[in-house]
Amino acid sequence: MKPKIGVMLAALSFALHAVALSLPKLVLLADDLGGSLKKMGILLATFAGFLFVGISRADEGPSWPWQEHQAEDCREFIGRKGGPSFSLSEDSIQLAEAVGRQAVFLEETGDFMEWKLIADADVVSIRFSLPLDEEKLGVPAEIVLYSDGEMLQRVALPRGHMWVFGNDTDRSQPPTWTDHRIDSQLTPRKAWDTLVVKLHRPVARGTIFRIEKDPGSNTRSVAIDLIETENGSPENPMPAGFVSITDFGAEPNDGRDDGAALAAAIENHAKIYFPPGVWDFTERREFEVKDHIIQGAGIHSTKLQGWYARFRGTGSGCRFYDFSADGKARYRAQQGLGEHPNGYSMDRSQEYHFFDGAVGEDAVFENLHLSHYVVTFASHDPTSENLRIENVRIRSSFAGGIVVRGGHANARITHVHVRGSGDDGIVLWSSVPGQSKRPNKNCLIKNCTVESPWFANNFAIYGGTNNRILGCVGRDNPTISGLKITPQFDSSPFRGTTVVRDLSLIRCGNAGSGHGVEAGSLLFATFDGQDVANVLLENCRILNAPHDAIKVVRKKESASVWVSFKNLSVQSPGRHVVAVGKQMRGGELRFEGPQIAGLVESAVKNESAGKLVITGLD
Hints:
The chain contains 4 helices and 51 strands. By secondary structure, the protein is mainly beta.
């Protein structure tokens, strides 16, 4: 009975969304006809917004110090609403990579969208996209912000950190995610970027906040996915015992390289403070840290920026607090002429991080806002214990968000929010390929959210011992899965029990567009004869999977998968609850107390010829 009710609800939801998709066109028509009919169009658009709320995002997961306002939930708009779309075709890539798979497009002079703010704010973050065919223009596109009908300020939207091109099914063939389309066959990705804007004056709760396209916009279209509003935190003064970067000749906001001052401070002192302002790092240097503390005045007060705003760990105890950093990356790997059969060669020398290297014991990364890096954070350190990453935001990266690999013990990743990563958002990786297979042990990912990675997975666990994911949310993965569990990538075997509890995966998975694989919201992949073993998922939810909710596949040699599911909830999967591929060696998927609704196909598709057994899922 439950599946039939679910199918009826899914059909009703689809019909309502279809009606909502047609209503925005009425707004444009009403705009031409003018007067009262235009107001009627706006009312219809507002009603359309209510219809869209049901799939824009689920109301669960960790709380954050900002208020999110989805474009499709705006109170009024004139423009074009697009989506939902799950296709990675070139004409719909912006929608597929959007949070909620929807966006609003401001295409004509005077097009706008408005929200009623639910809290005071003096900072707004705007997730936006500009047309693919304009990627070579170079000049920013402008929008105008209004508060209760009065102009706040003009905002220039940069073009440099969106749209890369590569082969998303065979990454061995260059170029891989380069910044311009050297070959017409390359796939465009990374449609979105995020800009943080300090408002010229604060706005109060209840304010009608507007984004508008005007004649100076320098673009055919501005797409808006969402905005985040918040109050910037108070500035932190320099703590006792610290030295200021200004003591070494650096000055904020002057556009000159501050690297020599930072290098001198690191060489002579362990505790370094960055006062409020923008600090530039444009000349190539390695900033090696060991037992150093890098302290800012707050994420909306202190900003490090430039290609060389990056650090390398060489020992224990480094700590970073209270600043933002913008790496200014424009691609994952650049291309040039070379001896490759296709005439290309890859230069990965710029595949850099905000932080990489060793962290040793008791390293801390807290209250940071990090954007436009390739891999934002990567530590490969078999000596690491008690690494703590907390209250960190990662935006618009060109590869992984947080990569903890190569033998960490007791790492804690809590209250981290990743959006728009170009590889796994947060991954526990028990290997350094070609160097070490030391397992990560007793590591924890807790109360984290990963949204809209434009490549790879939201979360991943690659081998290891007794690692856990608790209370997390993954949304809107258009390429692979919300969570991938595998011993792939030269990882150590699974030992102890891998626990995933209270995880929600929403609109995650694809139908063959990422790496050429059909991936479920949840993906288990054996690799080269290694099992996925002793995995427990408890109280987890999979909502609106575009393809299968759970996918089990093998890579190379056959192996077994042993997973227990307790109180799993699956709602409206695109295909099956569980799909098992061919040539599995054995194993069992054991379900206790599953809650399934909205099936459109059979609950199980098992092509393992009975070698992998599924129990408790009738």
